[in-house]
Specification:
The structure is a homodimer of 214-residue chains.
Chain A lengths: L7 H19 L4 E2 L1 H8 L3 H9 L11 E2 H12 L5 E6 L3 H8 L2 H4 L2 E8 L8 E2 L2 E5 L3 H7 L4 E4 L3 H13 L4 E4 L12 E4 L2 H20 L1
Parallel strand pairs in A: 3-4, 3-7, 4-6, 7-8, 8-9
Antiparallel strand pairs in A: 1-2, 5-6
Helix pairs in contact in A: 1-4, 2-3
Chain lengths: 214, 214
C-alpha cells in the first residue's frame, strides 16, 4: 500500500488505547498518568509515550493525560470522529451479525448498502437495509462514495468481488473471506481470518496439554 | 500464560501456512520450494524456514516441501488433527454465525454446547444444538471436557462468565467481547476485537485521503 508514515503495529494499538480511554470515561476518570494507563493495558509507559508521539504526544509532564481530550484526539486520528460509509458484501449469518452490531454506528461507521447473490435474500431487509443484487454492485459504486467494503462471502467469490471493488475505486476492504486478497498497493485490506485465531488457540491448548503430560 | 517455547508471532503465522498449503493441495500441487511458497505468501523464504525450524523443519535441500505432508504436519502441530471440544457462550447473531460456520468441523473443532441467558433463546436449536441456560454452565463444566470456550456476549457479562470458565478449569478462551479479559497465566485468550480492525482500516482510509489533498 501507499506509504503511511506510522508503523502498522502502532496503528493496530490505537483502537486499543481508544477502548481503554472509553472505559476510563465510563468510570468517570478525568485524567490518567502514562504509568497508570500502562499498568491497566499491560504495556510499558514508554511504549505509550512513543506511540502517541507519532501524533504529537498529548501528555503533560507531571500531569498525565486528560482522558476525554485524548479519547477525542484518538478518535480524530483514527478517522472515527466523522462518518465512514460502509457497504457489506454478503447477507449471510456473518454479514447479518456485522450489520446488527450497532456499536459500529456510535463509532462513525454507517452501513449503507448490503449486497448478496441469493434470490432468497435480495429485496429483504437486514437492519432496515434492503439487500441488493450483487449484480448491481458496479452501478452502485459508480454513483456512491464508499469508504470501506466488508466482504463476508466464500473465498472464490470474494476474489472476484474484490476486483470489482478495486476497479471501481474502493480503497479499503474489511475481509472476512478465508483468503488473502491481492490488491494494488493503494488499497488497504484488514483481514479477519476467524478460523486462524481459533487455530492459534488450538495450538496453545495442545502445547499446554503436552507440557502437563511431560 | 505458561511458557510455550514458540514465539507468539510464529504461532499466528502457522494457520496461514496451513491455509496456503490447503490452497496448493486444492490446485493439485504436490511439492513446493520455500521460494515459491514465499512468493505466494509474501514473506521471505528464510522466514518460512526459520518458522518451520521451530518444529524440526520439513524441507529437503533442492526438493522443497511435500505439500500434503507439510499440511498434515502443521495440522498436527496446531492440534487440529484431533478434535477440539468447544462451547459457545452467547446465541446472538455472532454466536449463531460462529455455530453455522461449519468449516470449523472440518478442521477438528466441534461445538458441543451453546449457552445464553435469554429465555427466548434457551431450549431452541442453533445448528442442531439446543441452547442451554447460562445458569447451567458451572454444572456442565464440571461434567464435560471443554477445550475452548467462545464468548460472544457484552463485555460486562463476558467478564463474569470468564471467571466461571476459569474457576471450572477452562484453559482457552476465544473472546469476541469488546474488552480484554483478565485471566491467570495458565489460561490462553485469543481476542477478536472486530471494531478494532475496522478502526485500523478507518485510520488508513483517513491517512490516504489526507495525502491526496496535501
Amino acid at each position: 500500500m501507499d506509504e503511511i508514515n506510522v508503523p502498522n503495529v502502532v496503528i493496530t494499538r490505537l483502537p486499543r488505547y481508544y477502548r481503554y480511554l472509553e472505559e476510563l470515561m465510563d468510570e468517570g476518570v478525568e485524567r490518567v498518568s502514562s504509568s497508570e494507563l500502562s499498568e491497566r493495558m499491560g504495556v510499558t509507559a514508554s511504549q505509550i509515550r512513543q506511540d502517541l508521539n507519532h501524533f504529537g504526544g498529548f501528555g503533560q509532564q507531571g500531569y498525565g493525560y486528560r482522558v476525554d481530550f485524548l479519547h477525542q484526539e484518538i478518535a480524530r486520528i483514527l478517522g472515527i470522529d466523522g462518518v465512514n460509509h460502509i457497504i457489506l458484501i454478503g447477507a449471510g449469518n456473518l454479514g447479518q451479525s456485522l450489520a446488527k452490531y450497532t456499536n459500529y454506528r456510535k463509532r462513525g461507521f454507517l452501513i449503507e448498502a448490503i449486497f448478496d447473490k441469493d434470490p432468497e435474500k435480495i429485496g429483504k431487509p437486514v437492519q432496515q437495509i434492503r439487500v441488493s443484487d450483487i449484480r448491481d454492485l458496479p452501478g452502485y459504486l459508480k454513483t456512491h462514495d464508499v469508504d470501506i467494503a466488508a466482504i463476508t462471502i466464500p473465498k472464490e467469490e470474494a476474489v472476484k468481488v474484490a476486483e470489482v471493488l478495486v476497479k471501481n475505486g474502493v480503497k479499503a476492504i474489511w475481509n472476512f473471506a478465508h483468503t488473502d486478497l491481492k490488491v494494488p498497493p493503494d488499497v488497504s485490506v484488514e483481514n479477519v481470518h476467524l478460523s486462524e485465531s481459533l487455530m492459534a488457540l488450538s495450538f496453545k491448548v495442545k502445547e499446554r496439554r503436552k507440557k502437563e503430560t511431560e
